[in-house]
């Protein structure tokens, strides 16, 4: 990830957190956070303190959370939270945007861990062949968020915040990413006979759940609905009510907490016994293989930037079109020497009348959705600073959803929904894209405009 700011020089720092696991191995991850700056809205969380009873001592926070989990699940068999694969992390930032960026950073790291495990297993499979036995990965990270007062006091707010994050992650499955298009094109060029010698993509799932001291607390709307049901005399299932109370008590942790679990499993095996000779010919004519579907996906993925002639051309027109294509290719090669960041700056200065001298530009070369959310959240944290010189940031993302303007717009709307659950953030997002439906907003690369509403 690359951050460039113009015209003002802005010091960018990302949040860090204290990590600890039951095996007493500790480490500090990341770079100094915004709480280190005197003008920042800092919390009182300290890393060390002479008194072990201080509520804002990071070590005490982690110890208390680990003890609570052990006591809550002490009678359970095969307790997953007491395995060595579990790590405990304390989020030391109090600002909502930094907490948001930290959550997406950990989700990204969990996904990368699962993908790295799958790649290593595939290398073993291709080298060991028949002697290979797959190994499934499962790891859990418990992230404690003790310093944000709004999240600590209101379960409905924290619940809506985490649910908005999970909903955005679910909707991201429909995005047409650049990496997915590239993989489809590679598969399109491969022969069916070579598939056994190619590494497979393992199934990586990352789940995000949450705990809270007031888990199950109803919002005002939910309380009114419950009172209305009681007035109408609807029958109440006492067994179900008791079950829900026990379920909520088991999730009432000492501090607001999220639990991130990553699982990496082998891809499903669709091999079947060969069909009988009598039905083989008919099945061959009517069957549609996964390879056919991948080829269609690759074709449709390229359709947005592939022009097709509407009518047949004469030999003279074909010759003119040939030389025109050569000229356009040379021109594109000449233009491509320029940095996408510089090209985007120049395009914004010419086409966006609201740009000012204090507007900041940042760039990220990520192509992954979780990394893009982290990048946008870090920029939101910079805008939220009271001493921020600019209220507008232009986020240049040349490799993120560059062939899908609709997906890029949905990405922006999902981020806005998440921010509505942050009491200390208020931002408006708009998009520029090479395939935007509005000609005036067709930029050379995907650009996200972020305006802080003060």
Protein model, in words:
The protein has 454 residues and is α+β, with helices and mostly antiparallel strands. The chain has 13 helices and 10 strands. 43% of the residues lie in helices and 13% in strands. Strand 1 (17-20) and strand 2 form a beta hairpin. Helix 4 packs antiparallel against helix 13 and helix 5 (178-189) packs across helix 9. The longest helix has 33 residues, at 96-128. Residues 1-16, 19-54 and 303-309 have low confidence and may be disordered. Residues 273-288 have a biased composition (Polar residues). Residues 264-288 are annotated as: Disordered.
Number of discrete helical segments: 13
User: Which class best fits the helix and strand makeup?
Assistant: alpha+beta
**How do the strands of the widest beta sheet line up side by side?**
2-1-3-4-6-5
Return the average pLDDT rounded to an integer. 76
Give the overall form.
globular
**Which range does the strand content fall in?**
5-15%
Helix content: 40-55%
- The radius of gyration over CA amounts to 26 Å
Ends distance: 28 Å
Instruction: State the major sheet.
Output: 6 strands, mixed
Order of helical and strand elements:
EEHEHEHHHEHHEHHHHEHEHEE
Low-confidence stretches: 1-16, 19-54, 303-309
Number of domains: 2
Q: How many DSSP-defined strands? A: 10
């Amino acid at each position: 990830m690359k951050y460039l700011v113009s015209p003002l020089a802005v010091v960018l720092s990302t949040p860090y957190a204290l990590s600890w696991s039951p095996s007493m191995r500790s480490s500090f991850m990341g770079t100094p956070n915004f709480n280190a700056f005197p003008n920042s809205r800092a919390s009182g969380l300290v890393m060390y303190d002479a008194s072990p009873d201080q509520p804002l001592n990071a070590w005490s926070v982690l110890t208390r959370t680990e003890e609570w989990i052990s006591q809550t699940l002490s009678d359970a068999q095969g307790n997953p939270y007491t395995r060595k694969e579990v790590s405990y992390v304390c989020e030391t930032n109090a600002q909502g945007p930094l907490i948001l960026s930290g959550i997406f950073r950990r989700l990204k790291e969990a996904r990368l861990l699962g993908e790295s495990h799958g790649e290593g297993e595939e290398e073993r499979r291709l080298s060991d062949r028949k002697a290979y036995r797959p190994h499934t990965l499962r790891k859990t990270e418990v992230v404690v968020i003790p310093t944000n007062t709004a999240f600590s006091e209101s379960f409905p707010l924290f619940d809506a915040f985490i649910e908005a994050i999970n909903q955005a992650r679910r909707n991201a499955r429909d995005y047409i990413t650049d990496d997915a298009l590239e993989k489809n094109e590679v598969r399109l060029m491969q022969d069916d006979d070579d598939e056994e010698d190619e590494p497979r993509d393992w199934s990586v799932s990352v789940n995000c759940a949450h705990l809270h001291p007031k888990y199950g607390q109803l919002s005002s709307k939910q309380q009114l609905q419950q009172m209305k049901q009681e007035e109408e005399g609807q029958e109440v299932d006492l067994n179900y009510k008791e079950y829900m109370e026990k379920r909520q008590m088991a999730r009432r942790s000492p501090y607001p907490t999220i639990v991130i679990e990553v699982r990496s499993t082998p891809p499903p095996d669709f091999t079947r016994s060969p069909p009988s000779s009598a039905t083989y010919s008919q099945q061959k004519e009517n069957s549609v293989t996964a390879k056919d579907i991948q080829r269609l996906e690759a074709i449709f993925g390229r359709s947005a930037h592939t022009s097709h002639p509407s009518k047949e051309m004469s030999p003279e027109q074909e010759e003119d079109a040939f030389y025109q294509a050569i000229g356009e290719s040379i021109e594109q090669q000449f233009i491509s020497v320029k940095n996408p960041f510089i090209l985007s700056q120049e395009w914004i200065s010419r086409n966006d009348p609201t740009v000012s001298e204090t507007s900041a530009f940042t760039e990220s070369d990520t192509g992954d959705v979780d990394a893009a959310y982290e990048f946008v959240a870090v920029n939101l944290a910079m805008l939220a600073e009271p001493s921020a010189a600019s209220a507008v940031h232009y986020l240049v993302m040349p490799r993120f959803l560059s062939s899908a303007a609709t997906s890029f717009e949905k990405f922006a709307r999902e981020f806005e929904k998440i921010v509505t659950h942050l009491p200390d953030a208020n931002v408006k997002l708009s998009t520029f894209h090479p395939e935007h439906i509005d000609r005036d907003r067709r930029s050379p690369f995907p650009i996200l405009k972020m305006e802080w509403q003060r």
